[in-house]
Write a structure and sequence with these properties.
Length: about 290
């Protein structure tokens, strides 16, 4: 019991570190987007992560090019990764970091709903109610029909749905593919997203200045570090004890948005984020109880 408690504490710290690094990655990308085309940012960011995870896979002696990498779940995963990254980075560019971060927290709710529909997982009426309440929080944040509504907020929603699809596809991915290999193909998909964005925007690449180059480097290092910490967290302690700390990303994102980009955290964002987090925590608790039963 003591050993499990200690493992849960360590796993929680890894998760908090991961969420902090993900928020820093977002902030660096948002900063770089002020000077460079989005397509160029995605390509550079994706290339950096691809090289990093190729090196990690090599160290772990995990082959990158195996038949399972071309399996149907992996192909679907790449498509949703492209959608998620493309729309979420556009959201980081065009709307406040804090707003994009809050909307992203609805991803686990969509994953649970998708798992019930696609994989036939048992989700009772209480968890369905929690999912609907959490999605209501998203609607409160984007405020459709209100004077403060911005259609650009939908970019973050589409990005969130893309990431949810990626996570669902990851559940069906062959178990033979290790974390480093999944990371390699995940960042490879980001390069594809960058190429798609470049073709759509028809904007020429620019040579980044020193500050922008440092922002891109910081985004790559933070992204790789965040993914590594996330994998460490999920393999240390109980998933039900560690997973709730995913919501600390919301705190980091809001803090960076206010401190670095002079953003304002509005009442609709406060109410909506509260509904999302409470719904997510309730679903995690119900899932833990169902597992025990």
């Amino acid at each position: 019991m003591i050993a499990n408690h200690r493992a849960n504490q360590i796993g929680s710290l890894w998760m908090i570190a991961s969420m902090g690094l993900f928020a820093i990655e977002d902030a660096f990308i948002k900063a770089a987007a002020k000077a460079l085309p989005i397509g160029e940012i995605l390509i550079v960011f994706g290339a950096g992560g691809t090289v990093a995870f190729a090196g990690l896979a090599l160290i772990a002696r995990q082959p990158l090019f195996v038949p399972d990498a071309l399996s149907r779940p992996m192909r679907i995963r790449v498509v949703f990764e492209v959608i998620g990254r493309l729309f979420y980075v556009l959201a980081l560019w065009l709307i406040p970091l804090s707003a994009a971060t809050v909307i992203l927290q609805a991803t686990p709710l969509v994953v649970v709903a998708g798992a019930a529909v696609i994989f036939g997982e048992q989700v009772g009426w209480r968890r369905w109610a929690a999912i609907l309440i959490g999605l209501t929080g998203v609607i409160i944040i984007i405020q459709p029909g209100a004077d403060g509504f911005s259609v650009l907020s939908l970019l973050a929603v589409f990005g969130m749905l893309g990431f949810a699809g990626r996570d669902l596809a990851s559940r069906a991915a062959p178990a033979s593919l290790g974390a480093a290999v999944l990371g390699f193909y995940g960042f490879l998909a980001i390069i594809i997203a960058g190429l798609v964005c470049t073709l759509l925007q028809e904007e020429a690449f620019q040579r980044p200045d020193q500050n922008t180059s440092m922002a891109l480097l910081g985004a790559v290092l933070a992204g790789v570090g965040a993914y590594a910490c996330l994998m460490k967290a999920m393999r240390t302690g109980e998933v039900s004890a560690v997973t709730p700390f995913r919501y600390t990303r919301l705190l980091f994102g809001i803090a960076l948005g206010i401190a670095v980009f002079d953003e304002q955290f509005t009442l609709p964002m406060l109410v909506g984020s509260g509904l999302i987090v409470l719904s997510g925590l309730f679903i995690l608790q119900r899932s833990k109880q169902a597992a025990v039963l």
